Amino acid sequence: MSGLTRDLVEKCKGKLIHAKTDLLNRVRESRQDLHNADDNKGGDEGDQTLRALAEAEFLSMHERLRKQLMEIESALGRIEKGLYGICEETEEIIEPDRLLAIPWTRLSIEGAEIRESLGKKYAR
User: Fold this and answer.
1) Range of the structural domain that residue 51 is part of
2) Is 93 within 8 Å of 2 (Cβ atoms)?
3) pLDDT reported for residue 51
4) Considering 5, 20, 82, 93, which has the largest number of Cβ atoms within 10 A of its Cβ?
């Protein structure tokens, strides 16, 4: 499997599944909190403003969590296809320490530096 040890891939898979479970629990809890806040309708303009701010914060957080969940699902898919641990930029094996730290990563350190420099180049 992509030149990585089976043990490393299994450790990363376990971390990915744990991260996925954690994300789904966070989404569920935040939805419950928002729903509980909606139960207290009414109040003055200040209360309504605070509810609107809480809803906007929830939506922003929910979007971040959704994107991270998509990255985790993508990494799990790469494991199933035998493509896990290959940098999308350099097509080299991603450093094992990097995979253990960020198991959903798509880029090696070198690949991330390349993407960052390209981003700066085209951001001008």
Assistant:
1) 6-123
2) yes
3) 81
4) 20
CA distance 121 to 124: 6
User: Kindly report the CA angle at 109 between 81 and 66, in degrees rounded to 5?
Assistant: 55
Domain count for the chain, please give it.
Answer: 1
Within a domain: residue 1?
no
**DSSP secondary structure of 57-101:** HHHHHHHHHHHHHHHHHHHHHHHHHT-TTB-TTT-SBPPHHHHHH
CB burial readout 64-93, b (16+ within 10 A) else e: ebeeebebbeebbebbeeeebbbbeebeee
What confidence tier does 8 reach under pLDDT thresholds 50, 70, 90? very high
Give every CB contact of residue 70 below 8 A, 6+ residues apart in sequence: none
pTM of the complete model: 0.78
